[in-house]
Amino acid sequence: MKILIIHGPNLNLLGRREPEIYGRLTLDEINRECGRRGQALGLETECRQSNHEGEIIDWLQQSEAEGFAGIVINPAAYTHTSIAIRDALAAISLPAVEVHLSNISSREEFRRRSLTAPACRGSICGFGLASYLGALEVLKLTLSEN
Q1: Can you give the C-alpha Rg of the chain in angstroms?
Q2: Does 100 participate in catalysis according to the annotation?
Q3: 144: Cβ–Cβ under 8 A, 6 or more apart, which residues?
Q4: Which of 7, 22, 78, 132 is catalytic?
Q5: Is 85 exposed, middle or buried (0-12, 13-18, 19+ CB in 10 A)?
Q6: Is residue 138 within 8 Å of residue 122, measured between CB atoms?
Q7: Signed CA dihedral, 50, 76, 31, 99: sign only
Q8: Per-residue confidence (pLDDT) for residue 104, from 0 to 100
Q9: What CATH number should be reported for the domain whose range is 2-141?
Q10: Catalytic: which of 52, 78, 80, 100?
Q11: Is residue 132 among the annotated active site residues?
């Protein structure tokens, strides 16, 4: 089973961008750990990052045709602003789990509302790398039930 992991805008700066909030791991390190956990779970992971909303939407729309079974998505700032990404998530039949490194509920007021989470199976936030790893575990269980 293939899982698409989508990282939104500015996540390419992880490791040096506000490490007190997002931690010191780089995106490459997160992708490597997701690959390791995926492999241990019998999942093939493919990680993509974009700072462009339309590209993320295209990836979501093409995910089924590309043979993916589920999606882990960190929409980053688009979480709070993108109705278009929310609609793309709602339009596909694949299960998606929204993740965030930080606890968005304890952040600034504008970050506390997710437009995209209601179109996902669920969300995991506030656990750094473990948010991503937990999402892979949940997807494996979800896909095994079907």
Answers
A1: 14
A2: yes
A3: none
A4: 22
A5: buried
A6: yes
A7: negative
A8: 73
A9: 3.40.50.9100
A10: 100
A11: no
Q: Which ranges of the chain would DSSP assign to H, the alpha helix? A: 19-22, 27-40, 53-62, 83-91, 129-145
- Please state the domain extents for the chain: 2-141
What are the tokens at 132? 């991503």
As beta bridge partners, residue 97 has: 72, 122
Q: Which two tokens stand for residue 20?
A: 């007190």
- Residues 18-75: tens digit of each pLDDT: 777 777 899 999 999 999 999 999 999 999 999 999 999 999 999 999 999 999 999 9
* Both structure tokens of 108: 């600034």
pLDDT in tens, 61-110: 999 999 999 999 999 999 988 999 999 999 999 999 999 988 776 566 76
- Which amino acid would we find at residue 9? P
Closest CA to 71 of 41, 98, 32: 98
Residue 135 has a pLDDT of: 98
